[in-house]
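Entry 12.
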Amino acid sequence: MSDEVIGTISASMGRRVLGIASLALLGFLLIYVSFTQPPAILGQVFLLATGSASLWIADKMRRATATVIELTASELRDSSGELICTLDDIESIDRGFFAFKPSNGFLLKLKSPGKRSWRPGLWWRSGRRIGIGGMTPGHQTKFVSEIIAATIAQRDI
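Predicted 3D structure (tokens):
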């Protein structure tokens, strides 16, 4: 099969900046409050832990949204080279309004489970389910999801 990229999904710059800045600001504010107006020791520990976790997630989101999801004829991967799934392993795709999916995205159900993985703002995998979307533009995810749906329909004939 060809390794040519058919479609890509990348985080939109506005959503990326807003999401990362919001999480970082929350982290700094929680840490600031824990030092300037310290509550009881357990409250201070909670504020420090929550602030640190917010900063960690902001950095994880910054690194994750710098990559691009690429669809080829045989697989869905990100630009860092990590394989998200092969198209042969996709059992179904759910783009419905009530689907448990990321914003502006879609949900894939696989035939076999994979290891848990999370790229905040871009994609996640838990067992046999993969959610694609979040900080992504709707037109990019719709294009890729339609190609995947057509591939699945053609394969099942």
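Annotation: The chain has a mean pLDDT of 91. Residues 27 and 51 are 4 Å apart (CA to CA).
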